[in-house]
Amino acid sequence: MRVTFGVLGPVTAWDAAGEPIDLKGPRHRAVLARLIVARGRVVPVTRLADDLWADPPSNAVGAIRTFVAALRRALEPARPPRTPALLLVTEGPGYALRAAPDAVDAWRFEGALAAAVPSGDALVRLEEALGWWRGPAYAEFADEPWARAERSRLAELRLHAIERHAEARLDLGLAAEAVADLDAHVAGHPWREHAWRLLALALYRTGRQADALAVLRRARALLVEELGLDPGPALRDLEADILGQAARLDPAPGGAAARVWAQTAAAYDRAVPSGARARLESTVGLLRDLAVTGGGGLVEARRHRVAAIEAAEELGDPELTARVIGAYDVPAIWTRVDDPDQAARVVAAAERALTAIPPTGYDAARARLLATIALESRGTRTDRGPRAARQAEEIARRLDDPTLLVFALNAVFMQSFERAGLAPRRDEIGAELVALSARHGLSTFEILGHLIRLQARSALADFAGADEHAAAADRLAERHERPLVEVFTRWYAALRTAVTGPAAQAETAYRDAATHLPDAGMPGLERGLLPLALLCLRVRHGLPVQVHEHTDWGPYGPWVRPLLLQAEGRRPAAVAALREVPDPPRDLLLEALWCLTARAAIAVGDRETMERAYAELSPARAELAGAGSGLLTVGPVARHLDDLATALRIP
After folding, report:
1. Is the separation of the CB atoms in 473 and 437 below 8 Å?
2. What is the CA radius of gyration of the chain?
3. Sign of the Cα pseudo-torsion (73, 78, 84, 89, in order)
4. Between the chain's N and C termini, which has fewer beta carbons within 10 Å?
5. Domain with 96 in it: what CATH number?
6. Of the residues 58, 85, 107, the one at which a domain ends
7. Is residue 632 part of a domain?
8. Is the pTM of this model over 0.85?
9. CA separation for the pair 317, 319 (Å, rounded)
10. Are residues 409 and 277 in the same domain?
11. Alpha-carbon distance 565 to 137, whole Å?
């Protein structure tokens, strides 16, 4: 049972249904409050006794144990007898409260205050957080020395939140709404210069210049008379700006858009019940938009997506679950998933929904589920992904639904790596995506189409064509605020340098491009990519392979290891490693990993691996190995095939 605690007012606790828990007498509540103040740290029993009594009685330790036992029964009523407590635990010489970070309203308040960065939803976040206050913190323990510092800290945070709330209103052009609250705030806390400044600014922005100046004069008088202090530079500068009607006092551009967002979000919160199913579908729409805003947004969208799917499944409505899963039609360009465990959970949920929805009348939902399965199972060697992609495409074409078709084509692209040498096919997919998306205003999939064509033209050594698609993707990304696109076009520029420029210049370009990966929110792309690109660069230029002990090769380790061992002069170990090398994943680096494996096999004379590599790479003879990723290359596949043919004595 989940228990939450409240200290922003009288100390209380609520059960999973939100009902108050009977915490017994004042001493029991004091023990609980003291442990909450400790924030998970152990409080020795002797310290508890000193805190609970000015002069602890002889049986203080026994009494505290009695209080703790009663609290445990109240907080965990379903816990079997003689089993360890999970919330109020015994540890070493005392007790600790093992509550989750969001289980105590004060801790949650601090987190909400930290998360309310200046943005359109800061106002909503702050309003919600301030609503958690039911009175002064630890209200019934105001005179206790152990609570004094925490009460003061929380009270200061609340005052800061009130001022942040007023700032959010001002940022959104809601100056008139801020005036009344700020007036009451400065009346109760006249020493807070920032609050006076906000009140004067709010008055000025509502057209009350004289009142704003009067407020500043009142602030000056109070500060001088009560504290013996002159106003600080912020108040003095504001007064001068108001007198001069400085342009910087006007609301920032974009305030109207932010105001509309905040007001709409607040109206939605009021109008749509918290348990309404419509909230889940609306949430997925927001997550879809969030995923393309940047690395942080992508990470958050992935995390909350699974939670939304699980919430839909809990409701037992397969049609709703299908809509929640299928609505997340976020374009995907990289063929390795960022979180394999999460992807597997999404696929499993999609398969369950696919089985549960009625067999007729739900073709669009079925196609979206199939496309999701294909997208989330990319890079694997099962036949489920390719079959799902084909079925999704067939349904979308039959329904003549462009929005559904671009999603299905994305799935088809992700499953177009069953063998090497398929860049021309992917170029066709990209071309259809660009044309279809441009015709129907689907900008995110139009960008995807250009990136797919960038990759395909790179694989075919058509860098003039790839340049055009990189430029088109960048233009669309700037117009529609899609910052993640730049990650791929920067890496493409490094690839271009690797093909046309000296190795040293290309290495610099790769290292520069890699600095943008940690903020991209794509661990499936980031991990091991830079060392792999630099290794491919050295192999392509015939430079010695460099071995660094602590290099993180990420998922590429099995295909890199034999070459590294050979470079270290450890031939037997390289031979053994080659015997264990699996076939590369069916993804954008298929040809590159086969070429690296082939180089190691040639070096140690592993005929069996050379024959496998030759057979696998032959269909890609006309391509640049790895360039289909748009990120790196090991040079022409033909060169590697020729080297293999020589080693194998193939005429």
Report:
1. no
2. 32
3. negative
4. C
5. 1.10.10.10
6. 107
7. yes
8. no
9. 6
10. yes
11. 63
H or E element at residue 10: none
Distance CA 6, CA 202 (A): 33
- Show the tokens assigned to 405: 């078709």
* 531 shares its domain with 397: no
- Same domain? For 410 and 286 the reply is yes
Phi, psi torsion values for 624, nearest 5 degrees: -90, 125
pLDDT in tens, 546-562: 888 788 999 999 999 99
| 395, 400, 402, 404 alpha-carbon torsion, rounded to 10° | -20
Count CB neighbours of 163 within 10 A: 19
Where do the H-state alpha helices sit in 400-442?
402-414, 423-440
> Cα–Cα–Cα angle for 14, 16, 21, nearest 5°?
30
Calculated CA dihedral for residues 291, 354, 436, 411, nearest 10 degrees: 70
Question: Can you point out the beta strands (E) in 386-517?
Answer: none
Whether residue 532 is contained in a domain is answered as yes
Q: Where residue 344 sits, what CATH number does that domain have?
A: 1.25.40
CB 301 within 8 A of CB 491: no
Percent residues over pLDDT 70 in the chain = 97
Q: Which residue has the tokens 């043919």?
A: 645
DSSP classification of residue 636: E
Residue 77 lies in a domain: yes
User: Beta-carbon neighbour count of residue 12 at 10 Å?
Assistant: 17
User: What's the DSSP call for residue 8?
Assistant: S
Q: Which has the minimum average pLDDT: 70-84, 367-381, 490-504?
A: 70-84
Q: What's the CA gap between 429 and 410, in Å, rounded? A: 8
287 neighbors 304 (Cβ within 8 angstroms)? yes
Listed residues 415, 432, 461: the one ending a domain? 415
Letter string b/e over residues 452-467, b meaning 16 or more CB atoms within 10 A of that residue's CB: bbbbbbbbbbbbebbb
Co-location of 278 and 410 in the same domain:
yes
Two tokens at 241? 């700006």
Q: Which amino acid is at 370?
A: L
The 10s digit of each residue's pLDDT in 149-197 is: 999 999 999 999 999 999 988 888 888 889 989 999 998 988 899 999 9
The neighbour count for residue 288, using CB atoms within 10 Å, is: 16
Domain range for 561 is: 527-648
Q: What's the total number of domains in the chain?
A: 3
Pairing, β 43-44 against β 12-14? unpaired
517 beta partners: none
- The fraction of the chain above a pLDDT of 90, given in percent, is 69
Q: Whole-number mean pLDDT of the chain? A: 91
β-strand partners of 44: 94
> Which H/E stretch holds residue 421?
none
In eight-state DSSP terms, residue 520 is T
- CA gap 490, 519 in Å, rounded: 14
Give CA–CA dist 625/632, Å, rounded: 8
Structural domain contains residue 153:
no
Alpha-carbon distance 15 to 296, whole Å? 33
The amino acid sitting at 497 is T
**Alpha-carbon dihedral sign for residues 586, 588, 589, 594:** positive
* Residue entry with tokens 């103040």: 37
498: closest CA among 351, 630, 308?
630
Average pLDDT over residues 354-364: 92
pLDDT of residue 569: 92
